[in-house]
Amino acid sequence: MISARTLAREQGRTLLSTADRIHRFPAKMTPRIALEFLDYAERILPPAEGIARFHDPMCGSATTALVARFKGFHVTGNDLLWPAVIISRAKLNKLDDEAMVTLAKFAEEIRMPGSLVPNETWSTAYVWFRPNVLRALQDLRDIIFEERMASYFPHLLTALFQTTWDVSASDKGVMVPTRSSYSRHPPRLSKRDVLKTFLIRLERVCRAQNALRRLSISARYARVTQGNALDASGWPRWRPSVVLTSPPYGCGLDYARAFRLQMRVLGEWVPDQYNTRHLIGRRHYVDKDSSNVPGFLSRARWYGRIGKRAPESLLMFNQYLREMRCFLDVARRRIAQGGFLGVLTGNPEIAGQRVPLSKIIGRLAEDAGFQTHLEGSEDRIKSRIQNFKPRSASAPIPTETLRILVNK
Questions:
Q1: Which CATH number is 26-82+217-406 given?
Q2: Res 83 pLDDT > 60
Q3: What b/e string do you get for 138-173 counting C-beta neighbours within 10 Å, with b at 16 or more?
């Protein structure tokens, strides 16, 4: 017989999944991994005065922060990508009853203008959208931005982000917009079809809000900022006792690409500070300086093989390692003494060579002053498709490993 406690926990996981699935996002962490980490941290952390503080400096779509809210932590998050910040705010913050009523009324009253000609285009616009579909998205965009001061604005914009993907020629089920033989032409849709798709996506956001209520998520606002995890802008003023994050893997994946169509549709509404130049693990804007590489790496055979096969990829990886060392140094200063840092990493493939990144990150963390507390919890990745046929620096990553570090 299943105990009441076990049943309640399974129901909580189901509700967490409902609250989490409001938008697809590249390389999402599973709630299960975050739950295991936070359960462990709660058992080991020394007793704290008041509510324990949690922060994710590279929060993505805020799966880890959502689980932390469920566990009762005081939660903050940060990401360099503005769309990720919007999605995280929609996911973490519970609207009050009045806002939910107003949101429902707003959705019922949406009326699409009759024009079928886009207001703005770009050189490849009609590769992705039919003209009337693009105009429908632009009309929805303008209607939504009239509500940009409302508490439910992030929720509306999140639904529009996902709708943009749904009505485009993007391959379905792929993390970032690609167009292959599986999807040769933009779908034939009317403006009414686009509105219907948007309302369905908004309904999913509303179901997530109901899940937050059933999970008894606090009404306290969870602050999510846009900043750089390598400096103070990516961290709160106070020192968190628990940090859990899943950084990029240094294999040149263009995470910003996941939002490129949405940003095209937003046009002039894109904020000035939307900048991907400082993304960790980027392929572009690579610093040519490859000095100061850790000695234990320069002697590794796989490291030498990458240098011979793809010198540019090695420069990219060296830059990634420098920035991860910078991140770990900043985290060491920002996390409370005795606090925990959880880092979820996978072993990517660069230039045909599998890289033992999980062990490298552990070594860099110890060099920064952290102590490895536990390593071992793994997440098997079954369906994170980057491309149907990998064309870039990486092959699929089969598993990820959670390393728990303590700031002694």
A1: 3.40.50.150
A2: yes
A3: bbbbebbeebeebbbbbbbbbbbbbbbbbbbbbbee
